[in-house]
């Protein structure tokens, strides 16, 4: 899903200059500076991705029985794992490669050392697994929330903790197997086109449809809630009103996750289509395409970094998770979690019979 190094696309350039003079061309020099800036941004995004997701997963590991009470929790944890993997591997691997390639031109070398090139390719493969998995997990989360709003009495039957866990694990297994296909001797151009068609393109289309359905169901639910609020005294808090508020918050979080994913995915799909299907590019067109590749990569990584902050922004329970994890075990004893509070778990979409 992620793009490879700049030299991998050089075969598409017409009127090629001598390769030894490539880094002396002004427009290529501009690209190299842009790539250097990308490396700096990736270092920052790596930190802001790893630490919050580590805090979330650490809280889950400390008390899994309290967290895994809903099917939605499996989707959230699966997404956090994908984001953490990206922040620990792909982002620093890409950053190291970009730094090395920028410095290599001053050492008289055309490319960085083999180890860094291998890290760059490894980062691209890992990102295919992690980011592709996050795509389908967000799609599943959006669909499950749509079911919760539109068919609340069937939610517990259709969306279960076991099924959501199987879906998340199967996603990782599937994308790992698909990524391994590229090392089986298949034509790389064919592999990339298949990947583009059935993964980011298809998933983006399905996510758009599901997001429209979820938004419409959410608006209808809010209208019904607004009407019912005039028929009873809403000034007295009760379990039903608290549950309705938490449902609203979690739906908004799901919509934000889907919208941010689509914003990065649509550019990602568009640029990859240009890379795979636009041939015989001039040097200027090729460099512009490479800059677009770096921009779409950064948007994907920004989406990865923002996921966990969306939880904490909209859901008080996740802010409690981060606060509790930061505190030492001795201090945390002084701040017990109330048994009948919001609880440190995602919204339970199920309705009692």
* Helix-strand category: mainly alpha
Please name the CATH architecture.
Up-down Bundle
Q: Into which percentage range does the β-strand content fall?
A: under 5%
- The whole-angstrom Rg is 23 Å
**In angstroms, what separates the terminal alpha carbons?**
44 Å
- If you consult CATH, what is the topology? Rhopdopsin 7-helix transmembrane proteins
The CATH superfamily bears the name Rhodopsin 7-helix transmembrane proteins
In one word, what is the shape? globular
Number of helices: 11
| Whole-number count of domains | 1
Number of strands: 0
How much helix, percentage-wise, in residues? over 70%
> What letter string, H or E per element, gives the SSE order?
HHHHHHHHHHH
Low-confidence stretches: 4-12, 328-345
Summarize the biggest pleated sheet: none
Q: Which CATH class?
A: Mainly Alpha
Integer average pLDDT: 80
Tell me which oligomeric state these chains represent.
single chain
């Amino acid at each position: 899903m992620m793009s490879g190094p700049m030299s991998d696309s050089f075969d598409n350039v017409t009127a090629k200059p001598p390769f030894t003079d490539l880094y002396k061309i002004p427009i290529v020099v501009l690209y190299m500076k842009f790539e250097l800036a990308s490396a700096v941004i990736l270092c920052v995004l790596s930190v802001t991705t790893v630490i919050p997701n580590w805090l979330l997963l650490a809280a889950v590991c400390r008390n899994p029985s309290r967290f895994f009470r809903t099917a939605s929790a499996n989707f959230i944890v699966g997404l956090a794992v994908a984001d953490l993997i990206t922040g620990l591997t792909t982002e620093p691997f890409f950053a190291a490669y970009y730094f090395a390639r920028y410095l290599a031109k001053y050492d008289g070398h055309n490319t960085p050392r083999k180890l860094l090139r291998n890290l760059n390719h490894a980062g691209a493969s890992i990102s295919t697994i992690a980011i592709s998995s996050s795509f389908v997990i967000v799609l599943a989360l959006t669909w499950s929330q749509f079911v919760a709003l539109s068919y609340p009495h069937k939610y517990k039957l259709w969306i279960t903790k076991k099924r959501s866990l199987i879906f998340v694990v199967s996603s990782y297994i599937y994308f790992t197997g698909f990524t391994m296909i590229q090392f089986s001797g298949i034509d790389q151009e064919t592999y990339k086109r298949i990947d583009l068609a059935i993964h980011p393109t298809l998933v983006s289309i399905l996510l758009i449809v599901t997001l429209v359905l979820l938004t419409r169901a959410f608006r209808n639910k809010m209208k019904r809630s607004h009407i019912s609020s005039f028929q009873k005294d809403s000034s007295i808090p009760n379990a039903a009103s608290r549950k309705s508020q938490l449902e609203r918050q979690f739906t908004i979080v799901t919509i934000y996750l889907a919208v941010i994913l689509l914003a990065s995915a649509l550019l990602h799909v568009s640029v990859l289509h240009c890379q795979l299907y636009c041939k015989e590019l001039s040097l200027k067109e090729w460099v512009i395409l490479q800059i677009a590749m770096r921009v779409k990569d950064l948007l994907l990584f920004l989406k990865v970094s923002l996921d966990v902050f969306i939880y904490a922004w909209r859901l008080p329970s996740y802010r409690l998770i981060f606060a509790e994890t930061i505190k030492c075990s001795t201090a945390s004893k002084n701040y017990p979690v109330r048994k009948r509070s919001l609880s440190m778990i995602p919204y339970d979409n199920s309705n009692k019979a």
